[in-house]
Each structure stands twice: as structure tokens, then as C-alpha cells.
Design goal:
3 copies of one chain form a homotrimer. By secondary structure, chain A is α/β, with parallel strands linked by helices. Helix content of chain A is about 50%, strand content about 15%. Chain A contains 11 helices and 9 strands. In chain A, strands 2-1-3-4-5-6-7-8-9 form a 9-stranded mixed β-sheet, with helices on both faces. In chain A, helix 2 runs parallel beside helix 10. Chain A starts with a helix and ends with a strand. Chains A and B meet through helix 2, strand 2, helix 3 and helix 10 of A and helix 5 and helix 10 of B.
């Protein structure tokens, strides 16, 4: 199948199945992630207590692990949910938010990488460098630096090492499954000026991997949806002669909720390298 | 008094008292619930630690218990707050979010139902079926299915059993106090496509029950406000030739903050059955 | 330097440094605070586990302590983070949300005041009265009452006592460092009708104190940015013949993200008294 056919198939399955995407995630962007899943036709659920995450995973079609506001209370929840998802063959998407800032994050991610079979890992360059073992200090959690200068070799090597898809997001997105590697040139600088667009991208990848199609194409479609929706949102700002981030966020959700294959056909910039 | 007079009285009391509505709620939609209470003229507070919920309840005019992101940390908080509210005669509104998904939720709700006198229980059909004891698997937390095919008898029976108002929301809302039963035909499909509208409905019911008027009319007004505001928000979208969920959410808060009795008079569709 | 020159310097430093602002904050308004920091050119991070807050502080340029949804789980985090910030000479901004409601809040704030050197304390009149030791019952967390009737003497006395800047916000803002005292007459009533504008003000003060300039001017600029942005947002509403709070919030973020010195020059109303 061509990329276009793969994407059409995933988008149709999302509409017909409305898959449930379970999130163990942070309280800063949880609302945005839930609205993103709904806007695209899925069903979100957020639950993080170790006493219930396994049951919630069992009802779900994908699991998103986002460590943005991790705490000692939820450390075991990430692992229990991940293991249950592996048992049941449910895709697991990891967002190692802020990896490179604290030891607590490093230890949890190390344990997740050792014990859970991941389907996709999505992070910015600094986070993925830290997954790779290169100790880079991550400044905060909102970074779009780095991918314009490469990252393909690291993505490929990590994808082979962890037997999963690696998605590095930034000005350019780099995606690899260890064999094929792609760059996506969609997006808009404003996406890095509102909080949560990284988390939302991870959630969308979860949604696009939930229907049982290839996770490589799920990751490519997921990041394309976010990048292209950002471009469409910016276009609306221009039409209104506005530059504000409040309006941009509204337009972004408008674009997400209206996303159709045609948007990809008109604007998609995916290059295999 | 007619419904119109009851509603006018409640709306006037909210404006003059600006009642404090204490929430033990989830981190996904807490911001939306707080803004909803403010938009309608009340004062919201969210606090969930067992060491302070009783004092916070004592300052409040209604208590909203929403188990969306419950955790072992907050289980006792729900019960302590509920008991204190009962002691002080403060209305307690329960939103059994996701009941039907996990054992943790079932156990907490069972304990709340056994130990707390509730004023209103609001949920979607699947959640209320689980309150009823019919084991139905709830898919996620955003559902609007089911009420178009009835629910009146169950609502009536549950209202008698728990001596409270039962409010089932969906395409049609069903409300009963065990004697009188109503259907509300307001609302818009987009309300089920953004997160939090169920939680917000529960918060509004809390606000409408906080002024000491009849909780049956509080529940009817609360759900009418949400349904009618959704309709008004959709009208604005049509005027702008937009279909986006980002814009819809903005218009929804505009409609909530401008809600007046006249909106009910023009659009309200409440039928006693 | 004149106020204008001080403000210009702070705004330029924020743009060039994009300082990281670490928040231990509440789950109701965390998203708004993160977006506020980003809109103005800074980098936000929210983390609250006691095992990682010290490391996160060490990477940051300012620490914001907001007790909105404090819990027993995070009590030590506030103190550990504050002490680490003191050790490293990083500014600490305290928002004693809801002080005057519960004993848990009183105890934590008493301990913070005793053990942490604060740079700025920002609260509404009722909260600051409680910092002062005047037991006033705080109704909820959204209040703009009180500053129109004074507060200057209390602000001055508290500033001397705690060797920090005191910022009381309300219809009029009162700011003192114990020697100089100011009143700011900017703002709009709608700022008190959406949740989070108090928290966002505290975050902005954190950002304006993060660049190493005088915290007195940081606090003055921070509150001016919020008040003036609220006025600009209201102007947009008028142009659109709207009065809705949903639109107001969008325009507020538009105004924050477009804030430039010129906005202060045209609208700033700061008076030394």
C-alpha cells in the first residue's frame, strides 16, 4: 500500500472503532490530550492509580505513558499498565517528558525500557538523546531544537535497539523503525509556543496505532496530523490578521477536529531518507 | 410555582449569593469546571486532601464528588467530605465517572452510596446502569448513548431507592425524584465531542442546588443550562461557517457566561412524563 | 533607571534568556500558567515530587510555590524546593492560595514563612490578611475584593517583616518592598471571572524576577502585564460586540503573547504613594 492508502485505512478505522486510548499522563496537559483524542474520533481515558490501571488497559486499544508530572505514587502504575498492555498485545506509546532533568525520571524510564516492550517512543531531541544514554541536560519540557541537524542515525540505532518506532519531534520530525527512516517537514513555530503539543502528538500517535495498522505508519500519520493542523491553524490566524497564541490554540483544535485525508494530500511533506 | 418561576428564583439567588461550590474532582476537567461555576456567577474551590476537605466543605454551599481520576490518596477524602456535608445539611452531588470500568471505582461508589446521603447523582446511561447494579462495561468516560431508548423507569426506581434525584444525561436527559420524572430534549452532538461537559453539568447542578431551592428543579435547570448553552454555541459556529471543536468550546463558555432566563424561555424543552 | 527602562530591560532579558520557571502548583490552572510563561517568552516546568524538585530547581531561574491543590504528598516538596532555591540564590515567589480556609494551608504557609526566604508573596486581600496573622475567612480562591480600601500599610509592614516584596491583587494592586509602595490601577473585572488569573499573575512575577533584575520591578511589571493584557482582551470583546468569558480568555492569551513595552507606555497606571 502507498502511504496515502495506509493513512486512509487508519483514519477510517479510527472513525468506525472510536478506540479507547488509556493515558497515564500529567495534569498540565491532560485536558488538551483528551480533547485531541475526541477531536480525531477516538475515546480518551485518564487513570493513574496502581489499583485500577491494569483493568483500564484491558478495556483499551492503546496505552500512552507520559511522565510529565510523575510522582512516587504513580511509578508502579506506569510499569503495571505497561506489562498488562504487553500481555494483551496492546500498543504502548512512551513520552519520556523531561528526561535529562532529574534522576527520578531517568530511573523510571530505565525501568520502563528494560521491562516493557514499547511500540513507539516520542520525544524531543534532548529527551531522545537521553534515551540513547547521551547525558544532555534538558531545559524544561518544551523544546523544538535539534532535529534540523540530523538525528536519523540515532533514531535508526535506537529503533533497532528497542525494537520499536522512534519519533523525534522538532522543527523537522525524524521517524525510524530501524529499517526505514523518514523526515517530516510539516509544522509551525507556534506549536512550540503553547504547552502540550508534544504530549498531544504522543496521544495522536497512540490513537493512530490503536486500530491495529502498522505502528510505523501510525507514527508518521500521527505527527503529520499535528504538523499539518498547526499549519492550518496558522493560516486562519493570517486570515484574521492575528498573531496571538490564544487564537492559535483554538484554531489548532478546529483543525484537528476537521482533519481529513485531503489535508495530508495537500500539505503532507514526508520524505523517506 | 411554575418551572419558570423556580428557575428565575434559583438564577437570582446564584447571582446574589455567589455560592461556594467545593469540588473533589479530576485533574482532566478541573479547569473547565471552575470556569463553568465562575461563568454562571458562583465561586468554585477544588481541594482533595483528607486533612482539609471537611473544613472546606464547612465553608461551602454545595459539594461535588467527581471520581474521574480517583486515587487511593483521595478515597477517604470523598467519604469524609460527604459525611461532613450530610452533618451540615449541604447538598452533595455525585458524578460516578467511569463506573463500570474498574473495581476501584465500583468499591468507592458502593461505599459512598451506603454511607452518604446524596442529593443528586448524575451520570451517563452506562454509569447509572452500574449504579443500578446492572454490570455494563463502560467504554471510557465520554458517552452519550442510551437515553433515547428510555431510562425513565430505572431513574425513578433509583431515585426512590437512594432518596435522591437521578439525572441520566445523553442525547436526551432523564431526571427523576422518584415521583416526578422529566425528559430534556436540549443539547447538541458537539457536547459529547469535547471533554468535560459531563463533569461541567454535574458542577452546574451543584451550583443550582446550592441556594437552598428544590434539588429537583436544581437538576432540571442545571442540565437545561448545559444543553441550551451547547445549542447557542452551535448557532455561533453556524454563523461563522465553522465546524471546529476549538471554536465550539469557546462559544460554549460565552453562552454559559451569558445565560439568562430568557434563553430557557426561548429554547427550553423539558417534558414531564 | 526609570520604570520604563527597568521594564524594557526585564522584557529584553526574558526574550534573550527564555528562563526556566519551575512551578509546584495546582492541577486546576497548571495549563494556563504554563501557557502564560510560554506566551511571554519563558520556559515553564511543573514537577512536584519530593524526590525531584531539588534537581528541577537547580536547573531553573525562578521557583513558583502555589498551594492551590496542596496535599500531604507535596508538603515536603514545597519546603525542599524552597530551601534549595535559597541555597542557590534563585528567586522564590509564593502564592498562598486559599489561605484562610483550612488549617492544612495555614500550617504549610507558616512553615514556609519561617524556613524559606521569599522574594515575592502575591495574594488577594483575604490571603494577605491571613499572612499578616489577621484571621479572615477566605471564601474560595477567586476574590478581587478589598484593595480599593487600602492595604498599603499592611503591605509595607509585611514587606519589612518578611524582607520581601508583597503584592496584593484586586481591583487595585498594591505592591511594596517596605520602603517604596505602589498602586496599579490596571485590569478589568472579567479577570476575576475566569479561573487562574491570580495564579497566572504569580507565574508572570516569577518570570519577571528570573532574569536577575530587581524583584520590586519584576513584581510591578508582572502585575502590569496581567492588568494591561486584561484591558486589551476586553477591548477586543467590545470590537466584536461580545461579552463572553470564553472569548475573553482567548483574547487574554493573545494579549499576553503580544505584550510589548509599548502596551505599558500606552496603558500603564502605576502610582508610587
Amino acid at each position: 500500500m502507498t502511504l496515502q492508502e495506509e493513512f486512509q485505512s487508519i483514519l477510517e478505522e479510527i472513525q468506525s472503532q472510536s478506540p479507547l486510548i488509556h493515558h497515564i499522563t500529567n495534569y498540565v496537559t491532560a485536558n488538551d490530550c483528551a480533547n485531541t483524542i475526541l477531536a480525531l474520533g477516538g475515546s480518551p481515558v485518564m487513570a493513574d492509580d496502581e489499583k485500577e490501571v491494569e483493568e483500564m488497559v484491558a478495556l483499551s486499544s492503546a496505552l500512552v505513558l507520559n511522565i510529565g508530572t510523575l510522582s512516587q505514587r504513580t511509578l508502579r502504575s506506569f510499569l503495571l499498565a505497561g506489562k498488562k498492555a504487553n500481555e494483551l498485545g496492546i500498543p504502548v506509546i512512551l513520552d519520556p517528558v523531561g528526561l535529562g532533568t532529574t534522576d527520578l525520571r531517568r530511573k523510571l524510564i530505565t525501568e520502563i525500557l528494560a521491562k516493557i516492550d514499547l511500540t513507539v517512543i516520542r520525544g524531543n531531541m534532548s529527551e531522545i538523546l537521553n534515551v540513547h544514554g547521551t547525558s544532555v541536560i534538558t531545559k524544561g519540557v518544551e523544546s523544538s531544537e535539534g532535529t534540523e541537524n540530523g538525528g536519523e542515525e540515532m533514531a535508526k540505532a535506537l529503533a533497532k535497539r528497542f525494537q520499536c518506532i522512534i519519533a523525534i519531534t522538532g522543527k523537522v520530525d525524524v521517524i525510524s523503525d530501524g529499517k526505514k527512516t523518514y523526515r517530516i517537514h510539516n509544522g509551525h513555530e507556534f506549536l512550540s509556543k503553547i504547552t502540550g503539543t508534544g504530549c498531544m502528538s504522543t496521544s495522536i500517535i497512540g490513537l493512530c496505532c490503536a486500530t491495529g495498522e502498522s505502528p510505523l505508519y501510525g507514527a508518521l500519520l500521527g505527527l503529520s496530523i499535528m504538523g499539518i493542523s498547526g499549519e492550518i491553524a496558522a493560516t486562519h490566524l493570517e486570515q484574521e490578521f492575528k498573531e496571538g497564541l490564544g487564537s492559535f490554540k483554538v484554531h489548532l483544535f478546529d483543525a484537528l477536529s476537521g482533519f481529513i485525508l485531503q489535508d495530508y494530500l495537500e500539505r503532507g511533506k514526508i520524505y523517506e531518507i
